[in-house]
Amino acid sequence: MSRLMILGAGGHGKVVAEIAKLMEKWDEIVFLDDNEKLREVNGIKVIGQFNDYRIYKDRYNYAFVAIGDNELRLKLIENLKKEGLLIPALIHPFTSISDNCQIHEGTAVMAGAVINTNVIIGRGCIINTSSSIDHDGVLEDGVHISPGVHLGGTVKIGKHTWVCLGSNIINNVIIGSNVIVAAGAVVTENVPDNVMVAGIPAKIKKRLGVIDSD
Ligand SMILES: CC(C)(COP(=O)(O)OP(=O)(O)OC[C@H]1O[C@@H](n2cnc3c(N)ncnc32)[C@H](O)[C@@H]1OP(=O)(O)O)[C@@H](O)C(=O)NCCC(=O)NCCS
Question: Could you list the residue range(s) of the whole structural domain that residue 83 is in?
């Protein structure tokens, strides 16, 4: 039997659970969430809190982290792997993904996403609704591509970076780690690590705290 625990029963978790159901790979799907009041969400039982994965790991052989915080998501994935849990990539059936792509464990690809040839997507990424990643793109671990974002060809994006709603990144641009690209931005030049950029063309608006990824 294949059974899946989804860590996070909020808005993102609900979307992820629907993808998991559509994939028809798991005999049972449950949530874990730190909101103790939750018992059931959209017909899926909430059986415990995040850290209870240790209690349930013998029954549920798969686990998926469905939380928006890019850094925390990756840390939890590491913890789950240490417990021997299998971490799938969850891919909505209504997507267009080249056979020549790599999509690593713990990544969710939402409805309407288009991922073109020779793209590499790291661990624990979110490729959100109706976004597109063109040929030869490289996304490091823990990147979030929000709904309606479009990346031109050969764009590179560093670890933990969040590309917000509806922004566009032109071809060949390199974006650093721990960057926020604000909603609606058009990024035309490379972006260094640890900054927030916004506007058309996107400019640095502020410096961000460095994330200690260890
Ligand atoms: C980027 C964002 C997260 C705000 O970040 P923040 O750190 O709170 O930014 P601040 O409010 O401190 O703004 C800093 C500056 O950037 C500007 N700014 C923020 N967002 C902007 C945007 N989308 N476009 C243009 N300028 C923007 C602010 O006006 C401010 O400018 P100022 O210094 O000249 O006054 C938010 O604006 C955003 O884009 N949210 C979208 C979230 C999203 O995509 N959600 C989907 C999840 S699935």
Answer: 3-88
DSSP-derived 3-state class of residue 82:
helix
Q: Is the CB of 168 under 6 A from ligand 1?
A: no
pLDDT digits (tens, 9 = 90+) for 62-105: 999 999 999 999 999 999 999 999 999 999 999 999 999 999 99
Specify if 207 maps to a domain.
no
Ligand 1 atom having least distance to the Cα of 126 = 48
186 lines ligand 1 (CB under 6 A): no
Binding site membership of 202 for ligand 1 (Cβ less than 6 Å) = no
Among protein residues, the one whose CA lies closest to atom 16 of ligand 1: 205
Kindly give the distance from the C-alpha atom of residue 195 to the centroid of ligand 1, in angstroms, as a whole number: 12
Same domain, 83 and 122: no
Q: Is 21 helix (H, G, I), strand (E, B) or coil?
A: helix
206 assigned to some structural domain: no
- Please state the domain count of the chain: 2
Give the tokens for residue 214: 């260890």
Atom of ligand 1 minimally distant from the CA of 128: 48
Judgement on whether residues 22 and 103 belong to the same structural domain of the protein: no
Q: CA 193, 199, 204: angle at the middle one, nearest 5?
A: 30
The residues that bridge with 109 in the sheet, in sequence order, are 91, 127
What's this model's pTM, rounded to 2 decimal places? 0.96
